[in-house]
Amino acid sequence: MKLIDDCTPCLLHLLLLAGLCVPSSSYPASRSPLCGMLRSMIHQVERLTKLSGKFHNLTGEELEHLEVAGNRLAGLPDMEHTAAHIDSLKVNESLSQLFMYTQSFRLHVNWLKTAKENVSLSSHPAKETNTHLLHLSTFLNASLHQIGEEVPPSQSPSLPEVSTAFDVLQFSVEISKRLRMFCFWSKRVLLIIQGQSPCPRH
Ligand SMILES: *[C@@H]1O[C@H](CO)[C@@H](O)[C@H](O)[C@H]1NC(C)=O
Ligand SMILES: *[C@@H]1O[C@H](CO)[C@@H](O)[C@H](O)[C@H]1NC(C)=O
Ligand SMILES: *[C@@H]1O[C@H](CO)[C@@H](O)[C@H](O)[C@H]1NC(C)=O
Ligand SMILES: *[C@@H]1O[C@H](CO)[C@@H](O)[C@H](O)[C@H]1NC(C)=O
């Protein structure tokens, strides 16, 4: 919860600014197919939020020992930075950004799945997470097509070598934390877009 608490002010800021910046006239006032996709994407993010807590099975004390390693996966999207820079993002830009982040998490989680299998740790949560990331990216891709935006190309992050189960656990903790932040950020962004679009409230 610590990361989320730290980030509350910037997210409130983001919420306020996005409300001011996103033009509400971008979409026709009738039932937009985007509304259905937004609902589906929010659902996927909610599933991912739950899964992000299941990446490792460690106690608080064990976690403290692991956390000293810090951030080793340089290619993971960093929500702490982007939350402050997102003020001026438009709907099309938020969706592009979300798509790129989702693709990045897919690559990292897939890599973690293999790393876990290599050291005989359960890869089930990683597999399930990847399924929902794939659904999310499919909806994002479709939404970008829907609003006539180009789908950004995927990057290939460089991923470190892993040899020990301890390494794998450290990476699980790191990805789990970042995935939580990503989910929190994504849900806010998707709700903002939903609020700016002519979508029924339920
Ligand atoms: C998680 O840890 C608890 C308590 O240590 C243990 O009972 C449980 O079997 C573990 N689950 C997995 C999936 O490793
Ligand atoms: C998003 O749309 C605005 C106009 O609505 C346009 O100026 C901007 O270039 C678009 N951004 C991207 C990343 O396509
Ligand atoms: C898993 O093991 C294979 C074979 O040893 C190796 O080539 C690969 O890099 C490993 N993958 C990860 C993510 O550790
Ligand atoms: C996005 O969707 C289009 C069709 O709507 C498909 O051709 C393309 O492969 C998809 N791209 C990704 C990255 O999923």
From TrEMBL:
InterPro entries under this entry?
A: 4_helix_cytokine-like_core, IL-11, IL-11_fish
Which terms under GO biological process does the entry name?
A: positive regulation of cell population proliferation; positive regulation of MAPK cascade
Task: Mark the transmembrane ranges.
Answer: none
Tagged with keyword Signal: yes
Molecular function terms, GO-annotated: cytokine activity; growth factor activity
Question: Which UniProt keywords are present, listed alphabetically?
Answer: Signal
* First and last residue of the signal peptide: 1-26
One GO CC term of this entry?
cytoplasm
Name this protein carries in UniProt:
Interleukin-11
Query: Which species does the entry assign this protein to?
Result: Champsocephalus esox
